[in-house]
Every structure is written in C-alpha cells, then in structure tokens.
Amino acid sequence: MGMPLRVVDYGGNENRDIQALIQEGHRCFFDGQLDRAKALFQRVLQGSPSHPEALHGLGVIALKEGRYKEAIRYLQQAVAENPHFAEAWNNLGFALYKKGRYHEAQEALEKALQLTPREPSVRENVKVLARLTGKKVKAVSPFLSLCMIVRDEVENLQKHLARMKDYFDDVVVVDTGSQDATKTITSSLGARVFSLPWENDFSKARNESLKHARGEWILVLDADEFMDEEGVLKLKEVAHKTDAMGFQLPIYNYNRRQEVGVVNFALRFFRRHPKIRFAGRIHETVEDSIVTLGGTIGRVNIPIHHFGYTDPDALTRKTVERNFPIIEELYRTEPENVQAVLYYAKTKLVTFRDHQEAKRALLRLVGNPRWRGRPGYIEGLLYLGHVFADEKRFSIAERIYEKVRQYDPYLPDALFALGNLYFIQGLYSKALEFLEGILTLEAGKAKTNLVRFSFTDEVLYERLTRSAIECGQIEKAINYGEKLRNLLPDDPNVLHNLALAYFQGGQYLHAETLWREVLQKDSLHAEARSLLFYLYTLQGRSQEAQSVLQEVTTLV
Questions:
Q1: Under a CB-based contact definition with an 8 Å cutoff, are residues 144 and 235 in contact?
Q2: How far apart are CA 287 and CA 245, in angstroms?
Q3: Are 160 and 224 in contact (CB under 8 A)?
Q4: Which helix (H) or strand (E) segment is 398 a member of?
Q5: Measuring CA to CA, which residue among 234, 441, 374 is closest to residue 249?
Q6: Can you say how many angstroms the Cα of residue 81 is from the centroid of all Cα atoms in its chain?
Q7: If DSSP states are collapsed to H, E and C, what string results for 447-500?
C-alpha cells in the first residue's frame, strides 16, 4: 500500500513571518533535513499553537520516522483545525493503517477522497483498505464542474483546457456549431461534449452546459481562459467553508505583450442549483437568479487568466461580427436593460468612434433614476465623463468624475480620470495627487465590475513621472521614471523623461548616459539632443557640445 508523504502549502492569510517559517520547513523536509524542519514547525506552534500546516508538518515527519502514534496525534489535531485539509486526512489514513486501525484509516481516506476525488493515490488506497475491512467504498460525487461553451476553438482548447482538465472533477463543453475539430479534441481531453445550435443567445448556451453539470459547484470559463491548479484548489477550499451561493472572480485580461491590462470581476463560480441560471443574450450573468433565491454573492481574489485580448484585430472582428448585432437589437427592444444600453454606448464609443451616438446612449443611461448607483450606471457615468473630456468641456467632465468617486470611492479609473484631466490642463500638482492615490487604493473593493479598464501601468507611470518633474519633486520623478523604464525599456521618450528627472536632480552622469541611449534609438530626437548639448555646455565640455550639433548636420 503506497501513500504520498506530502506537505502542501495552500497559502492563506497567516502572518508573513509564520508563513516564511512554514515555507522553510517545507524546503528542509524535501531536502531531507528533518531535524531542521521539525524545529521550524515547532517554532510556528510556539506563536500559533493550533496552526494546521505546522501540525501537519510535524505529523508527516513523525510518520516518515515510524513514530505512528505521535503522527496520528499531530494529524488528528491538523484536521480538527482545518477539516478541509485533504493532505492531512490522506496522511492520517496512512498512519492509522500502519497501526492496524483499518476502519478508521478507511474513514480518513474517504474524507480525503471527498476533498480530492481525482487524486489517484487516494483512490487506490481507499480500495486497498476496503478489501482489508470488507467495507464498501462510498461513492464520491463530483465536487467541481468546469462548464464551457465553444465554437471553432481547437487552438485555445489545446493550449488551455489540455493543461487544466485534470484539476476538475467534471468537464462539460457545449459546442455551438464548430466546423473544425473542436468536438473531437474536446472529447479526447476527457470532457463530456454536447451540441446546441447557435441562436445568438449566450445565456441559452451557458444554461445548456449548467444542465449537464454534475458537481456541487460550477466554474464557468471560455476557451481562451485558464485557471492554474493553485487557483482551483483555493476555489475548492472557499467552497467548503462558505455559505455564499456564488463568487465574483477577477479576470486578468492579457494584452499583446502578454501583460495584464484590464481587470474585471465576473460571477463565474457558483453552486449547482436548478434555479441558478444565466440571463441576458449577451454579457450574461447568473447574478439575478442568485439574488432571487435570497443567496449571497462574495468576491475572492482567485484570478481567471484571459488571453482573448492578445490579438486586438481578432477581438474587434469578434465584437463587430458576432456581438454588436445582438447588442444593437437589445438596445432597441429592451430599453430597461441597463447592460444593453451600457454595452451599446461603449461599442459605439470605443470600436466605432461614434462619439455623438455614444453620448446619446450614455445620457439615456445616467438619466434613468432606477439605475442610479448600480455598477453599470457608475461605469456609464465614467464613460460620459470621457466624452465631455474629449470635447474639452473639462469642468463638466470634472463634476462627472467626482460623482463617480462618490458612488465608488475604490474605483482606480475615477482617480485616473481626474488625474489625467488635471494633467492635460497643466495642473500638475493636482494631477500628481490623484494619480498617486491609485497606488495606495485598497484592491478588490470597487463596486464596478471593471477596474483599471481606462488606463495601463505604462500610461499611469508616464503621467506620474512627468507630473513629478513639473512639480519639482525629483526623487518621485526618478522613482516613477525607473518603474516606467522597466515596463518600456526601449521607448526613447520614456528614457528622455527619466534623463530629464536625473538632470534636474543634478545627477548629470545618469542624464548623459540616458540621453546618449535615446539618440542611439532615435537619432532625430530633438529634445534629447538639445538638452545633451546644454548639459555639455553647462559642464564646459565645448568640444562634445559641438560634436552633438555636428551629428545633426550629418543626419540632415
């Protein structure tokens, strides 16, 4: 009978010093330094006597050294503190088995199997003990189902589903009319595949997948999305401990540089229930059905990684060809649908650049008192501020942005909108104040489902650098400029602004080096050349100053 002796760190909210000791204890255990690992876990217990991971670590060490009675004591304490600790149940089962306590061992292993139903070693050990005890193995129902809808997604499925299929107890895929090998690939990956004709209704397709799910909980992903194993394990832990019916998760949207750009929250993780169903032909959600049932909705910081924005041209085609006809129809036929009005306005503004039509739709949205304060209303209000800012009606835009802040004080986009508005008006001190506010804003508390959707880190640090320079806050300018340099190391303008900050701070050697680098990347960069000439003149280096001017003549 085999049993993995593993110490697993699921992460958590423990004190950082304690967590560092736990991590070091794990490392020593795996390196065979058992005495050192034991000392570290005991040190944790001095400050936190019931810490389940420290108890588990001591139990596993005792198990490895053949001290089974001691191992059982530690492991029983660990599962008492954290009944959802699958590895502790797993190892407790083995310790009980070694002491000949087969019935208790089987119960412990069956508990581990309920928590990790796809763990092969646990399944095999349960079967072994069942043969020894003559006790029938309890059937374990799936705990977590992955539900997807797809069409012509071979590449994404091979890239993402193939990596995460084993993290789930049940995988359900509804195909809406693929012409490629999507169904064949999906079946080969172990999913249960169902077909449904596409009827321009995302909710109908989503609900078909929910109908076939077998798990107690459901995670909804698209073919271009991925969740890592750690995230799935954390979801299971959350589900075991909560009374909520569903959770919003952050979706990290990656750009063409494979960096996280926009982050939005969506209700993608919820209990399987016949009355929890998606609503809305597009931008569908189960939120209303959970509210109708009287259930609570939480928010946890376990990210979904979305790669659909890495090809902006493909995204635009998808928006125009598939999504916008549905949005346009809903805008005309469902005037009380706040999401339809919002997405119509956003598409007109961002994709079609039709500012006037977008403005009409946004005014309709914010003029409806029944929608006031809802996430869609707040987002629409922010976009309306952008429209007035584009029209250079800055005072109106400012009042709108302040109203957004009143509704959602934790929305970073509102702070950026105000900071950027002051920046373009040359009010750099106020710009710096609001832009810096973003850096200290508590994450995850915004009411709006989209956060950081109107700016990138690159734009933020560019504005911070230039505002700090204009305010004479050189230390800040250098700090922000270096952060921007890490993001855009080859951008001549980024290097130029950083050089300017170093120059104003009297650090001439840094400034000279950076301006020389700028001119290597862009020999016609007039400001860099002019300021390098000035630097050489200021330092009395007339020959080098003339050389800079001669380079211009040669280039021209």
A1: yes
A2: 10
A3: yes
A4: helix 394-407
A5: 234
A6: 29
A7: CCCEECCCCCHHHHHHHHHHHHHHHCCHHHHHHHHHHHHHHCCCCHHHHHHHHH
The identity of residue 311, as a single letter, is D
Q: Do 338 and 365 touch, CB atoms closer than 8 A?
A: yes
Say if CB 126 and CB 138 are below 8 A apart.
Answer: no
Residue 113's CB is within 10 A of a number of other CB atoms, namely 22
Share in percent of the chain as helix, strand, coil (round to 5): 60, 10, 30
Query: Which residues lie across from 305 on neighbouring strands?
Result: 226, 252
- DSSP lists the bridge partners of residue 304 as 251
From first to last of the 556 residues of the chain, give the pLDDT tens digit. Answer: 444 333 333 334 445 578 888 889 889 998 899 999 999 999 999 988 999 999 999 999 999 999 999 999 999 999 998 887 888 998 998 899 888 888 898 888 888 887 777 676 777 777 777 777 776 655 556 789 999 999 999 999 999 999 999 899 899 999 999 999 999 999 999 999 999 999 999 999 999 999 999 999 999 999 999 999 989 989 988 998 888 999 999 999 888 778 887 788 899 999 999 999 999 998 899 999 999 999 999 999 999 999 987 676 666 666 666 788 889 999 999 988 898 999 999 999 988 899 999 999 999 999 999 999 988 999 999 999 999 999 999 999 999 999 999 999 999 999 999 999 999 999 999 999 999 999 999 877 888 877 777 788 899 999 999 999 999 999 999 999 999 999 999 999 999 999 999 999 999 999 999 999 999 999 889 999 999 999 999 999 999 999 988 876 665 4
With beta carbons less than 8 A apart as the criterion, state whether 144 and 168 touch.
Answer: yes
The CA distance from 178 to 205, in Å, is: 14
pTM attached to this predicted model: 0.67
Please check whether residue 286 is in contact with residue 219, taking contact to mean a CB–CB distance below 8 angstroms.
no
State how far the Cα of 278 lies from the Cα of 290, in Å rounded to an integer. Answer: 10
- Residue 332 C-alpha from the chain's centroid: 34
Q: What are phi and psi of 247, to 5 degrees?
A: -140, 140
DSSP at 285: B
418 vs 48: CA distance, rounded Å: 46
Euclidean distance between CA atoms 52 and 8, whole angstroms: 11
CA 198 to chain centre: 29
List the structure tokens of 360: 């009409």
By CB atoms closer than 10 A (0-12, 13-18, 19+), residue 486 is: exposed
3-class SS of residue 268 = strand
Phi/psi of residue 382, nearest 5 degrees = -65, -45
Nearest Cα residue to 555 out of 537, 517, 527, 529: 529
